[in-house]
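Researcher: Next entry in the queue.
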Amino acid sequence: MRHCSVQVRGLLTRDELDRYNALIEVGSFLESQSRYDLAYTVQQEIDRLIQPAIERLKDKGRARDKATQEYLEAKKQSAEDSTEEE
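Model: Structure for this entry, 86 residues:
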């Protein structure tokens, strides 16, 4: 089974995380029994389950990028203002 990243797992809700852990356990059992056909189906369900958390992670990244851009613009403006005062 392919695990999702720690960052994505950290953004799963409690219900999503419980379901994720259960699906991983089922998928690992199926792989140990060489039932890769069924494990593939479980992996697809895991991939669908984690999509909302991936979107939340992307949103956090966009917010961080926006905050960084605003900070850089404010710093640039501050530098221009101090240059004009001299």
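Model: The first helix runs from residue 6 to 10.
Researcher: Noted, moving on.
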